[in-house]
């Protein structure tokens, strides 16, 4: 028996058997987005994928191929969609991708899905995709398909952990784009895809309480990160991993009422 | 000369003259959504409309008819879309409404637009509408149309103000749905549409760091608000109004480089 | 108990109770459109809204927030979509707005809806929205949702009334845009939003029996109205009101088999 | 040289030459719709196609393949969309078909298009298709594409003609569905597709001044026509043809400033 | 009783009776596309329409009006979409047309549909239209609607027939655009719409194993055909007809388990 | 300097520099689809991705993240979309994904794109995405964006190679789903994801020259492959790889007029 939790690595009978046994399916939803001078552009795919795999191992789940393109980067949370490399979808494209996948999973017989978001801007278009899909499933007579949607960073909320990650004070998830949090995770998971020596140290980005379109590129630090990654290290990444895997596993068990 | 800032109350020659003189246009984007037992369901329209009018008077602007229906209420920010009365649009409908209106304003010759959001869940679909519209305007050769988008509560951020509004501690905008903030504003602006005697006092809503669909209605306080409005009063509402009108007027002047 | 027929002014429990008791819901569908030099641009919203409220009071109904933007003004019925101020939606946007609202009303438990159109050009896009919505409701197992759609002017058809309104002869609803009919109604309902002294007197617009796109603006009278409002007065408006409220109330009772 | 005015019967070099010389293109827009017991279901395609050909011969134009499916039949103008045989498109499908064809014609170099409608319900979705297409052409830098849109019956308006067609009084185009007008035209053009012996004589359909959805089939005469075709004859059809060909030819020459 | 197999030539009661008796419905799906210097542009409509009629007569079926516009001509199968005259739809427009027609047929009570494709490029958009329609029918509780889709040339596969048509060797269906196959069929069915004297003799088109967009027009033979029609004749056309009618009739009987 | 050809592994300045220097971008377009009992379900992603990387190294190109979900599996080319595990998108979703990515690449300054298809059913929806994107780019004034689209198997066409791969005769690409071709490639590239011992030997699938919907699952071999993979081996895979990399590299150089 194939022990992989990766759907793409299974044969269809292996997958069919897992789904028939009630396995939870995980879908990482990422983006192709600039993450500064020191990190590759697939960060938002790699991180939720790694977490999906780790949690899937805990709860006997399966991980679908990640969505590698996400919604348009916004200035205050991702630097903005004007950088070369950042390659984004229209909202409707992302929404319908989610809807199509849920429709197919339901056809397979799956009833438990976790959408693990790795790119802040995706959130509402994921929600809309879920809503359209569940509505459609109801028309088809399926009312027991259940979706958990989460952004993994929301599980890092214990004051002690925040304190350990940000001994000089936490400035908010918004400006964590390419900063200590994501960089530390990458150092723990894919150190070869980070080059801290090229990290640009800069004060946290500051934005007015409104947005302007077309955006004013100068408001984003030139390197693309919104806060400096200088405080990042592997240990912090491993701490975040532990906290996320534990928290998300527990949440998934709770949400789907799983034994394991 | 008609002194109204309300576009709907002007004749077209009056509007045309204002637009030709460079007036900023304001569009309140609201929702029809339950706001507990003590408040009417048009709160998310009334509040941004009132603020648009007040700011328009400051900056010689004009206020378009509000969008009275918004995106689906989410459990953690609006209680959820399962309440009777809450009447929401699909994301694409809201997005295309925004896109259509911007296309028309550009045809009129307007080049400055403020989208004032009064319903948290609208944010990303407004952003998408702006992006699609500005993209389309570029195809039509128009590159100088500028949009400011804001949620008015983001202008209430001075610690002294927060302290005055929430002497017992601020718990975050998320759970302010139908709570002290919105209720105080309504008391200042439309006291006849609030009946504090029917307000339900309850502890702040607590949610896990993930969402489940279909939602679990029991996670929302039965009355529909996410925090108790009991601390609301007219004075707080007037303070918020002052802070918002001043802050937003100043932001609009800055963003559009206005003299007045 | 809140006596308002305006949905936006109710709390959700008040609304829920009304809907549970079988109340008919009214949705005014308007437009933001030029109406000449003597009238404001929100005429097509104000008139059906006023009629909805009046009829709702007769039949114990409820009035939803009006749709303030409608389909593109056509030259022969609204002067054309080239005027500044006229702010219109694509057909699909209007259609999906109608569809979304019907889907939500059905979720609330409502089963009786009156769509009161105030802007000629909306008609077919409303019809399509209804058709798409009822089709979708059928997929969801709901087959008893019933919609009445009407344009209020179609209830003014008794020869004696026409004779009283147009002693010099009636020229057809088409060119009534901004003319005697709408202006009289506005004088009866919102006299402060009409300035007859600025009304431009002109012969009725004449059009060839075909349409040209792009339109030829010169074919529309420069002021924007299609017939002169000079014969308008408050008394005619009150007559129209009486006729419409009576006729529509009676039609609604008949269509939904209401006691009251 | 091929003398046909039918685009489908030309080779592409023949078509290309015609278009290069400035020929006007005609597109008949029809429907597949019941027309009572005495007539075939392709009436709304055959009639505008015949008129397009006749007019094209007059003005050196070309006729595209007709659109054989139209928008949903409405009860008051076509009996309703519940009859077997009536086969209709969603509004968006018709609109996009029109838009696509205009985009292609513009690519060919054509700049003059006549959309000849043969099915009342199509009108607004044709208008929307034109609007979307011309908007898009503008983005592509094409601003001289001109469209005439017409319903051929609108050219039958001279009182003497109406009197000759309806000696007992004209009841309006609305209920002419399958009645004297269309039947007479069919008798003049395609007599083998009419069987007057099967025509059902009935009083003109009467409808209340509102529509109900789902429609109440009983409100339509059981045979499907809205007025009796008994008064139809070939002579009336020939008169209509003469009037329409003459009137439309003249309108097309006027609209496009044609010599011929 | 009307003996026509053409739906458009029937009255609705005739159609209703046929459908009630279980008749198979045929829909020819064509295109308006250049077919070289020697043939008209409606070839892809005429051929599947003729075959539909012939097969319908064999199996007591009915033929709907053909779809006269198809998906964009591709260089390797139709010469490319850059020729004047070729008038194509976006994929979604074709797909939704198919979907709408199937939805309507199901409403009529029909349950057997044959989609006869006459234009290679349509294939996948037809498939998608079927899939969307059947999905939607399932939501409406209809699970017994069955569709056969075919391209008629796929029935010409017996080596002896291929040998007779192409004594010098068969080069593949791809480059048969406007070549021996289609021209022979046209000579058998519509000889007046072919002028072999204008046929351009040229070596078969050769293309690299990839496509380039925007296409390089020079890669298509200047006349528009992809292989020479010089070997075409009426006898070959009649052979193809016999083979196709026999093969398709038999397939339809098999697929729908028909007696006749 | 990062030597990776994988866009996701680059920082944005590295990517920006490559694009500025004129690098060709490659996008693998795959599917999540059953491939029998002996192979994993990500075959259609792994193969074009490997080929993109190999060719990109030859021509100094860059490889975007693959599209991991494709159009619905068809019975005659992929077994059908009814297998558990096969997870497919609606056509419009795939088309818009392609369109969005091209729009973004154009914004980055890229002008050369290769779409490498690994799943037969994707082809036409890719083509439509390209057409919509290039049309839109033209509206934005960009006319020099060039796309090559190919299915890698089309480069395996030399008779000697076919003879070596299929000594007992080649039966057509159609039924190569999960057969010798794909299995050999997987053995050369990802042998750990193939288990030949589980391969089911069966005669080649045979289908009638038409398709039926809903499909008849029994027509597909129960294991899901359309021809037996028994003749597959690593050497054949390496031969295919050599042939494809050489052929595609050469095609890309030719198409984009590259030096290298």
TrEMBL record, chains A, B, C, D, E, F:
Cofactor(s) needed: Zn(2+)
Enzyme Commission no: 3.5.2.10
Gene3D superfamilies: Creatininase (3.40.50.10310)
GO biological process terms, semicolon-separated: creatine biosynthetic process; creatinine catabolic process; riboflavin biosynthetic process
Coiled-coil annotated spans: none
Gene Ontology terms for molecular function: creatininase activity; hydrolase activity, acting on carbon-nitrogen (but not peptide) bonds, in linear amides; metal ion binding
UniProtKB keywords: Hydrolase, Metal-binding, Zinc
Residues spanning the membrane: none
Family: Belongs to the creatininase superfamily.
Protein name as catalogued: Creatininase
């Amino acid at each position: 028996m194939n022990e992989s939790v990766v759907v793409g690595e299974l044969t269809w009978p292996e997958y069919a058997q897992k789904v028939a046994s009630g396995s939870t399916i995980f879908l990482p939803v990422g983006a192709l987005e600039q993450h500064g001078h020191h990190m590759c552009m697939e960060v938002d795919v790699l991180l939720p994928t790694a977490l999906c795999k780790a949690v899937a191992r805990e709860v006997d789940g399966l991980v679908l191929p990640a969505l590698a393109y996400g919604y348009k980067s916004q200035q205050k949370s991702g630097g903005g969609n004007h950088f070369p490399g950042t390659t984004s979808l229209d909202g409707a494209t992302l929404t319908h991708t989610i809807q199509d996948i849920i429709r197919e999973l339901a056809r397979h017989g799956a009833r438990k899905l976790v959408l693990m978001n790795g790119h802040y801007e995706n959130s509402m278009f994921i929600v809309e995709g879920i809503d359209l899909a569940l509505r459609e499933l109801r028309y088809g007579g399926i009312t027991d398909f259940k979706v958990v949607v989460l952004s993994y960073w929301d599980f890092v909320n214990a004051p002690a952990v925040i304190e350990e990650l940000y001994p000089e004070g936490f400035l908010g998830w918004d400006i964590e784009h390419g900063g200590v949090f994501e960089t530390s995770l990458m150092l723990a998971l894919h150190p070869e895809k980070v080059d801290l020596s090229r990290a640009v140290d800069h004060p946290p980005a500051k934005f007015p309480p409104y947005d302007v379109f077309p955006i004013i590129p100068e408001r984003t630090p030139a390197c693309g990160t919104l806060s400096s990654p200088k405080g990042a290290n592997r240990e912090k990444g491993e701490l975040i991993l532990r906290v996320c895997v534990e928290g998300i596993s527990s949440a998934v068990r709770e949400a789907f009422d799983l034994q394991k």
